Amino acid sequence: MICLSVRRSIVLSTCFHINRRTDSKHKHAIALYTKRDVFCLVLDSASDLEDWLQNLLFLQHGQDLAPGEVLRPNYGKCH
């Protein structure tokens, strides 16, 4: 495991959108959209991307998640 220093922290509940991002440089990326900026996480594989996306969405939704609810991006919900 590679340890890197923390550059920035993002409160996931303040993200109004978390989703896959497709661009020409990175095949497996997730974008976290905040009021001021977009932050991207680049992953090694499609399975890593899916794992990270589901975990980020779970953390974003927190206690609002009903049992068995399908995790989806939180479009347009600004705090």
UniProtKB/TrEMBL annotation:
GO terms for cellular component: cytosol; plasma membrane. GO terms for molecular function: insulin receptor binding; phosphatidylinositol 3-kinase binding. InterPro entries: IRS (IPR039011), PH-like_dom_sf (IPR011993). The keyword Repeat applies. It comes from Diaphorina citri (Asian citrus psyllid). This is Insulin receptor substrate 1-like. GO terms for biological process: insulin receptor signaling pathway. Keywords: Repeat.
